[in-house]
């Protein structure tokens, strides 16, 4: 919205700053952070009053989690509010990728909100049936995939770009839509599975978003793509503003989510943010890089899949408990120890993901 202030510029004054994506990205970060700090405490108080007993705790979960009973959930609404407000304020609203990301984020956030509401109101961990959540997620992802297809330049439509092998494009043809669907829905659910300890999911989400934001800015500039020898995707530079808004809101949320958490993110936040990461990867043609940068989410999801399949086949478990962060809890690791080590792994993976921009 503020981008339109450039119409008042003569090319050498303050209003000219709004032409620059980096300036507006900084503005989005600050705006989102301030938003989260202003509305964080009032939102938590409201959730505590409305939810009463807070998020229900699994009976078969680690014993340390029973002390968290009564903590309100749906705290992801704080991140989404900050993210949406800052994006609408600072991004160019004539950019299709901005609206694509807002659509995915809000839609998955609505699914998560319904799931959180069902859990809190019924005081059980069932929530919205998994098939319903998955079905709605598929519908959202299909719409997003089709939109991304038409936003991409003709030479990149239906194509899969490979990191390192930069001259290679794999023509997926009609399989591009199912592939994009798997990326978006898979990312949403992987982040959702990771959100099981105080602060565990939000920092890797911010790290992944920051990495993808840098990539989006790079592939949206002709000069950068020529230097890095990556594929140019016009318009993706505005995604940096979205990701900086996410990081600002995420930091504000982490202030209240740091152990011991005053509020949980809930599915409202985890599904929305995971879906957003998947949509960014599809928009920038860096789906495979997302699997690297978001490696923590991939491992968390795989641990659940492996556990379920192996148990059905043999009646035995590979992990003491899945997702894998609970496995380490069962082994006696302290919660902060698990969280911080997962953060460290996320940072390392982010550096590897960024390196793919130059390595060939």
Can you give me a brief rundown of this structure?
With 360 residues, this protein is mainly α. The protein has helices spanning 21-51, 76-90, 96-122, 130-151, 176-194, 202-219, 222-228, 239-257, 266-284, 287-293, 295-314, 324-330, 335-355, and strands spanning 159-161, 169-171.
Please describe what this structure looks like.
Helices cover 64% and strands 2% of the residues. It has 360 residues and is mostly helical. It has one domain (2-355). The protein has a two-stranded antiparallel sheet with strand order 1-2. Helix 2 (76-90) runs antiparallel to helix 3, helix 4 packs across helix 5 (176-194) and helix 6 (202-219) runs parallel beside helix 13. The protein is globular and about 60 Å long. It starts with 20 loop residues before the first helix and ends in a 5-residue tail after the last helix.
Topology:
Blueprint: H1 21-51, H2 76-90, H3 96-122, H4 130-151, E1 159-161, E2 169-171, H5 176-194, H6 202-219, H7 222-228, H8 239-257, H9 266-284, H10 287-293, H11 295-314, H12 324-330, H13 335-355
Antiparallel strand pairs: 1-2
Helix pairs in contact: 1-2, 1-8, 2-3, 2-8, 2-9, 3-4, 3-9, 4-5, 4-9, 5-9, 5-11, 6-8, 6-9, 6-13, 9-10, 10-11, 10-13
């Amino acid at each position: 919205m503020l981008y339109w202030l450039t119409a008042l510029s003569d090319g050498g004054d303050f209003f000219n700053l709004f032409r620059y994506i980096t300036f507006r990205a900084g503005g989005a970060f600050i705006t989102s952070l301030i938003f989260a700090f202003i509305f964080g405490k009032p939102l938590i108080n409201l959730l505590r009053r409305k939810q009463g007993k807070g998020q229900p705790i699994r009976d078969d979960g680690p014993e340390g989690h029973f002390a968290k009973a009564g903590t309100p959930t749906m705290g992801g609404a704080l991140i989404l509010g900050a993210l949406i407000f800052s994006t609408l304020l600072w991004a160019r609203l004539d950019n299709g990728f901005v609206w694509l990301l807002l659509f995915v984020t809000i839609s998955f956030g609505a699914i998560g909100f319904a799931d959180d509401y069902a859990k809190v109101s019924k005081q059980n961990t069932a929530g919205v049936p998994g098939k319903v959540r998955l079905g709605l997620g598929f519908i959202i992802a299909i719409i997003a995939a089709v939109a991304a297809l038409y936003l991409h330049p003709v030479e990149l439509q239906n194509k899969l770009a490979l990191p390192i092998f930069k001259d290679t494009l794999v023509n997926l043809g009609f399989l591009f839509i199912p592939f994009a669907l798997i990326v978006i829905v898979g990312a949403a659910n992987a982040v959702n599975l990771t959100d099981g300890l105080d602060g565990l999911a939000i920092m890797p989400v911010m790290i992944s978003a920051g990495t993808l934001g840098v990539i989006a800015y790079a592939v949206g500039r002709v000069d950068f793509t020529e230097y890095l020898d990556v594929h140019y995707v016009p318009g993706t530079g505005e995604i940096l503003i979205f990701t900086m808004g996410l990081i600002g809101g995420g930091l504000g949320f982490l202030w209240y989510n740091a152990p011991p958490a005053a509020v949980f993110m809930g599915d409202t936040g985890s599904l929305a943010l995971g879906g957003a990461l998947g949509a960014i990867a599809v928009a920038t043609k860096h789906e495979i890089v997302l699997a690297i940068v978001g490696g923590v989410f991939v491992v968390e999801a795989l641990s659940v899949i492996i556990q379920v399949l192996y148990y059905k086949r043999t009646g035995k478990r590979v992990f003491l408990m899945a997702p894998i962060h609970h496995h380490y809890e069962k082994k006696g690791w302290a919660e902060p120890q698990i969280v911080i080590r997962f953060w460290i792994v996320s940072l390392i993976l982010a550096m590897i993901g960024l390196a793919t921009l130059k390595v060939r």
